[in-house]
Amino acid sequence: MTDEDCIFCKINAGDIPSEKLFEDDDCFAIRDIAPKAPTHLLVIPKEHFTYLTGMTAGFQPVIGSMYNAARQLAISEGVAEPGYRLIVNQRDDSGQEVPHLHMHLLGGRKLGPMG
Ligand code: AMP
Asked: Over the range 67-87, which residues count as b (16 or more CB within 10 Å of their CB) and which as e?
């Protein structure tokens, strides 16, 4: 399922050009357009899920694929050893801007405490 108004669905379809750093059957990864750290990637499921709470058990493999992508990208970006942070913003209190589930991978500098 895709959402024709969704920016991440458009990127996945190639309607908005963006370099895919990783891709498998379930997800893909791009660089964030407004990076908050030297490495700032987004791991995005190909299906249009808005929220984790809307996903059913059948979609657990997609979550596994997203973590597998993050793992591989952390290595290929050279942040696996110094360390990195994975973030999934959900709804208003988190400041989620794009209503299509995605995981941020941040690294390349001391990220400091959360908060
Ligand atoms: P969130 O606040 O968790 O919804 O994060 C959405 C992220 O998507 C932000 O960090 C934006 O900078 C990023 N973003 C928005 N549009 C694009 C785009 N066209 N390409 C890459 N990243 C984008």
From this structure: ebbbebbbeebebeeeebebe
